[in-house]
Write a structure and sequence with these properties.
44% of the residues lie in helices and 13% in strands. By secondary structure, it is of the alpha/beta class. The protein is globular, with a radius of gyration of 22 Å.
């Protein structure tokens, strides 16, 4: 057995499941706690599942969970975690916000995993705290909450608030919490049980490197694409992109066609349109503002380009019919 608990009494942890929550996010939070109990030989953690009304909650993969009760039945909790994913950007339930505010007044540590960060932010519970969110929602989240200190880290722990981007980052968050409360040896033993190599640096980027994502290795081509990705609102000219890597515009053109099968102007346009689609589906920004945020000089050009690429108008994205393309 590994580690010694710092307190004889187990921590009571409440997990609020939001409809459409990510199963991976949920299990990545729960399983390290279960394993910590097993490896320590003590009940260090207990957890209870809640929904807003005590009724079953369906995850994004269609599997339903029966909670232990409605959130109003929760007693004193050491930690409360909101688990979300699909639709969190449009979730709006004042009862949930009030519940988390009440827990905060009692000193409960509050956490959000995957896109659950939206919910704590709307409750006003992340003001003055560092936080993070899944990379696919990062831009939209910053647009909606410009006053918050938002990072692109895998996870953030700031005093009595903790947030994680999603997927394996949640397991790394929980392992870090276990290490802080019960020692590194126990945390390492839990990680080993899951054949998981913990990330020692939460500052590592959420997204895989461009080299792996695009399966290309040409350094100058990758450098141009990186410039494009960070300059969507104010697109750089062909000349500026080429100059940044010491090539001619013709040389850059050849690289894009050879490795990506399209001209750099087309690749850049598609990056901006994909960014626009996220803003349309995840925020309430006016369509004109979305077009400006994605580097389009006119709404008509934006609408025309959008329709040609996605075969639908920007306005139709406000009522999407398929929701299973959101963060994990």
């Amino acid at each position: 057995m590994h580690g010694q608990p710092t307190d004889e009494s187990p921590q009571e942890i409440g997990i609020l499941l939001i409809p459409g929550f990510s199963m991976m996010a949920f299990t990545s939070a729960i399983e390290p706690l279960r394993s910590a109990n097993r490896m320590s030989g003590r009940t260090l953690y207990r957890w209870l599942l809640y929904s807003t009304d005590g009724q079953p909650v369906e995850a994004s993969n269609g599997i339903s969970f029966m909670p232990d009760g409605p959130m109003e039945d929760a007693g004193r909790l050491s930690k409360a975690i909101v688990c979300a994913a699909l639709g969190a950007e449009t979730f709006n339930d004042r009862r949930v916000y009030s519940w988390f505010r009440r827990l905060a007044r009692f000193g409960t540590h509050l956490g959000a995993i995957s896109t659950g960060t939206y919910i704590l932010a709307r409750a006003g519970l992340l003001d003055g705290y560092k936080c993070t969110i899944h990379w696919e929602s990062l831009g939209s989240f910053i647009e909606e909450f410009p006053q918050l200190e938002v990072s692109a880290k895998l996870f953030e722990i700031d005093r009595d608030r903790f947030t994680a981007a999603g997927g394996n980052a949640i397991m790394d968050l929980m392992l870090t919490i276990i290490a802080g409360e019960h020692g590194h040896d126990l945390s390492a033993a839990v990680a080993e049980q899951f054949i998981h190599v913990p990330l020692n640096d939460p500052d590592m980027p959420q997204r895989m490197p461009l080299r792996r994502r695009l399966r290309i290795s040409h350094p100058k081509l990758l450098a141009v694409i990186e410039q494009m990705e960070v300059s969507l609102e104010e697109p750089l000219s062909r000349e500026a992109l080429a100059d940044s890597v010491g090539l001619s515009t013709r040389q850059v053109e050849r690289l894009f066609v050879k490795y990506l099968g399209k001209a750099p102007s087309r690749y850049y346009l598609e990056l901006r349109l994909k960014r626009a689609r996220l803003l349309l589906s995840q925020t309430s920004m006016p369509i004109l503002d979305v077009s400006v945020a994605c580097g389009f000089v006119s709404a008509s050009h934006f609408s025309k380009s959008y329709r040609e690429f996605f075969s639908c108008s920007p306005r139709s994205e406000r009522t999407p019919t398929v929701a299973n393309t959101r963060p994990t």
